[in-house]
Amino acid sequence: MDELDLKRFKKIISQLESSGNKFTNHKEMKTGMHKGSRAIGQYGLMPVTIQDAAKMRIKNGTADELDLQIANMSIDEVKKTVPKLVQNDSPEYEKYADTLAAHVLNKYDDPEAAAFAWNQGHYTNPDKIKKMMVSPKTEHQKNYLPRLRRAMALVDRQSTADKAFATTKGVMELDPNKSEFARNSEVDVEAPYKDRFTPDLSRLPASTTFISPSDEIETEEVESPVSGFQNLLSKLVDPSTISYKKKKKEEET
Q: What residues have CB less than 8 Å from 98, skipping those under 6 apart?
């Protein structure tokens, strides 16, 4: 499975379960096999589901001590202890999310069906999941597919924006064997923001000064427009000026 597909799927699930890791205080389940427990973290992993993931890792030959510990717990122990052992955003939490995401993506062979199974039960038969998607029986199932597609669109828009930003930085390495651009790039990504928010005083005339509100500086007295006009008017009506102009005109004639 492509690692990018796995990351994209986890981001979609995060949007569905916690609005992108914003709301992780999940409600306590009142009925069913999860009764008395709460989902954990941004992906909404139930304690019992984490135990399933631990057993998957044992089966795959990738188990560690924590997997063995959780796998051998009773259901009651799982609900009580796993939330303390596996907390949101921890390496252990991401490990179990990766395990379950890979499982549903491989089993259902379709991101939408895999997301449905994440929510409705990863043991559900693939044909039954597809029937839920086409002919939902509950209000939750009916609303889930539109929500899922909105989450997918949002994640893809964010991914496109991130790629565009990385390209402008000159650090995106699409091919590890052709990373010279990434190594040698001298693109200053902060330059547009420097010019926009912090003026470069070296580019401005020497007479230009930027003053912060806390600065106290002495300023030269500047003639106001009104006083300038009055000075000009006084020169125009000055008797000596008028007499000089009259005398010069008589001499010319």
A: 6, 10
- Distance (Å, rounded) from C-alpha 132 to C-alpha 161? 33
Residue 165 has a pLDDT of: 79
How many of the other CB atoms lie within 10 Å of CB of 130?
Answer: 15
- Model pLDDT for residues 207-228, shown as the tens digit of each residue: 333 333 333 333 344 445 555 5
Tell me the CATH number of domain 3-166, given options 3.30.1490, 1.10.10, 1.10.530, 3.30.70.
1.10.530
Instruction: Copy the structure tokens of residue 28.
Output: 């306590």
User: Dihedral of CA 117/123/124/129: which sign?
Assistant: positive
Q: What is the DSSP string of the chain?
A: --HHHHHHHHHHHHHHHHTTTT---PPBP-SSTTTT-B-BTTTTB-HHHHHHHHHHHHHHT---HHHHHHHTS-HHHHHHHHHHHS-TTSHHHHHHHHHHHHHHHHHHSSHHHHHHHHHH-TTS-HHHHHHHHHS--SHHHHHHHHHHHHHHHHHHHHHHHHHHHHHHHT---S-GGG-HHHHH----TTHHHHHHHS--GGGS-TT-----TT----------HHHHHHHHHHHHT-HHHHHHHHHHHHHH-
**Where are the domains positioned within the chain?**
3-166
pTM score, two decimals?
A: 0.65
